[in-house]
Structures
1.
Amino acid sequence: MTDTQSRLGPALWEAPPGKWNPDDDDTLVCTQVRAETHDVKSFLFRTASPKLFRFRPGQFITIEAEIDGEVIHRCYTISSPPTRPDTLSITVKRKSGGKVSNWLHDNLKPGVAIKALGPAGDFSCSSHPAPKYLFLSGGSGVTPLMSMSRTFYELGEDRDVVFVHSARAPRDIIFRHELTMMAHGMSRFRTAFVCEELGEQRDWSAPTGYLTLALLKAIVPDLAERVIFCCGPEAYMANARAMLKETGFDMAHYHEESFSFERLSPEEQAETQDAPAEVAGGSFKIEFTKSGRTIDCRPDQFILDAAKAAGMRLPFSCARGLCGSCKSKKLSGQVAMTHGGGIRQREIDAGMILVCCSKPLGDVVIEK
Ligand SMILES: Cc1cc2nc3c(=O)[nH]c(=O)nc-3n(C[C@H](O)[C@H](O)[C@H](O)COP(=O)(O)OP(=O)(O)OC[C@H]3O[C@@H](n4cnc5c(N)ncnc54)[C@H](O)[C@@H]3O)c2cc1C
């Protein structure tokens, strides 16, 4: 490895490299793998040629993995803070039967390159500055809150943060030691771990069971004064919302990130249900060459929604133009696309579109 590759030579200290732009080079090289728990690993990356990562704490990248000849996209929150711009890490929990998480755990080693897009997402404390925060996380939902906490720690911002993390058992607590260390270093940063069960650890004095409203109020008596960031499994977040509503918490100060994208907001659900399956006039024809289907799509309708309404099953994930899962080749026709970073400019120039955020401007033919 040369000095430039290792970046420990003069290159690191002299002229600062430019900002990473996946449009120019989307290759990330794994530099280190860290076992966080028995089924969670952090993967550290740097860019192929010297570049700095710029992102807001809480944002995610989309990994593009080629597994058995199939290109699969998955989003992973950046767990490192933006204050360490030479490197970026993701922290991945192995999911039983999951394609990408298991592939990453088994194959991503130092020196292995992977393609990535991003950063994207608006779940960030930097978008909602507040004097007091409550971070609520469950399982791997700790990652965006860890990036935010690491940012405060490294900037020396002694913020009033209560970080309540729920895990199955003490051995499943991700970043346990680092969170404890940060709490020692910042006088107004507190952690509380809530475990469902003890597992093998018998010397555990913290509460066990699920997070209840009584417990939450005991840990955070000034709950109502805080801006809340919550991330975890769907059931965990539903429980958090229900508890907060019960206390009369002002939900304008509540922000959450879902790792599944499958739960639509009530407004999005209403939109999908209202969309008529068949529109007699005023619609365009969308032809899918591989599946041999042609459907109608209104000019005000996203192609993905029209395809779903017509009973087609296209790959998609975020449905917000962020993750890139629904990327498709447009063979002819024009669309109006309002993506959120899930597609590179050079891909757009080559005729690719994200069907989740593209509305037809006429008849369109898509290779799908
Ligand atoms: C914004 C965002 C940020 C995220 N950040 C993180 C993060 O920081 N860390 C992290 O670990 N994850 C994160 N995720 C989740 C991550 O993107 C993946 O969803 C996760 O790693 C699982 O992917 P997979 O390919 O391993 O599993 P998948 O292959 O997608 O499978 C998921 C589950 O579904 C089951 N399954 C798959 N196919 C079928 C089928 N046909 N029938 C029945 N069951 C099936 C699998 O057995 C598995 O249990 C994030 C997601 C989003 C949207």
Note: The pocket of flavin-adenine dinucleotide is lined by residues 60, 74-77, 90-93, 95-102, 121, 140, 143, 259, 261 (CB under 6 Å).
2.
Amino acid sequence: MTPHSAGNDRDRCPVGKDLEFDPLQPETFDSSHEVYERFRSECPVAHSEQFGGFWALFKYQDVVDMASDHTTFTTTVQNVVPKISFTGRRPPLHFDPPEHKYYRRPLGGPLRSAQTSKLEGDMRSYARDLIAELRGKNSFDFATDFALPFAAHGFSRLLSLPDELVLRVRKLSVAYNFEVQAMNHVEVRRLSLELYDVAREIVEGRKAEPLDSNADMVSGLLAACEAEVDPITEEMVVASIRQMLVAAMAAPHAVMSSAAVHLARDAQLHKRLREHTELIPAAVEEFLRLYSPYRVFSRTPVEDVVIGGREITEGEPIAMIFPSANRDADVFDDPHEFKLDRMPNQHIAFGVGVHTCPAAFFARMELRIAIEELVRGIEEFSLAGEVEMMNWLEFGPVSVPVRSTTRESA
Ligand code: HEM
């Protein structure tokens, strides 16, 4: 990417046709990928008039280059498209280095593999109980009956919170995401403030009863605030937890549900994973690549730039379309195929650069447990109705109706 001084050149796509991108097109489970393929080959840096106007990057290398360059592309203006925030910046996502590291550092201890691995036993037994309930039924909805409660339970263990509170938070954040997409300012503000209230309650509770700051993210942030080595304020601790409330459950919920759709359509793969559970970590990477659950994060250039031959003016929002980048044929052979032997699998579902997901180890463990228990407990299942998709911000189903042929005794 190079700086430029000329005027805006958005009317000419140097690669092919000029295509206007519409993020609000209704979608099925597969349709977005057809759209993204067309943009990758015909207009890989596209403009959209939606949400007040923004640019969208569809190619892997463009996304990697932008996410790696936090000097030219800031997250302090907005981190998603559309920008619709009234309640201030939330660390660590909405901060650039060096401030970013003040908030990121205290998350490192509680999210390291040695720490989060301790949750595996509890999460597995919870998954087993959920699957045991589903085994007795001929039909169920994988997204609402398994993925949602399991993702909520995982987060409740990670933050030492009651499951009921976390389920309420997930409902709030789904409603919040839909209102953001609809750009309904009044509702976005109301829901955001409600999420802030929950975050404040959690922080107050932890101040009253602190946990080990190496094991608990809230206590870690509070300890950093008290140590006064870095300029962290208590209000920013609340804002960090507020950010996590929305970030932590959406992606596992979405990608687990997508994996279930994939397995429902591919009985051979289901059987293979059931017989060879050692293949499940590789399967998790392919599910993350094929169905990258965070569809979009954005950056704002602090100077005029040229990306893929298109001139973009300082201050114009640019969206990175992760599910598109992860199916780019320039990087992945047979990009739409599920390949257990894809080596190396360089998908970027967890992001790139300073904002790379700090919870990637935990999320991978969570997905591995979910798939292991699903294929172990439910011998066979197929789709029993329409897969209903979430929205522009999250790629994945909110409803996966399935029919199971697993007998109680199997
Ligand atoms: C399948 C699961 C997950 C996926 C695919 C995922 C993906 C991502 C991505 C792509 C980013 C980078 C955003 C950007 O560059 O703008 C990110 C950041 C982040 N994620 Fe995750 N995430 C997952 C689960 C989680 C969980 C369970 C947590 C809970 C702790 C979490 C907490 C965060 C935080 C705090 C950030 C901001 C990091 C920073 O700004 O330095 N994520 N995640």
Note: The longest strand covers residues 296-301.
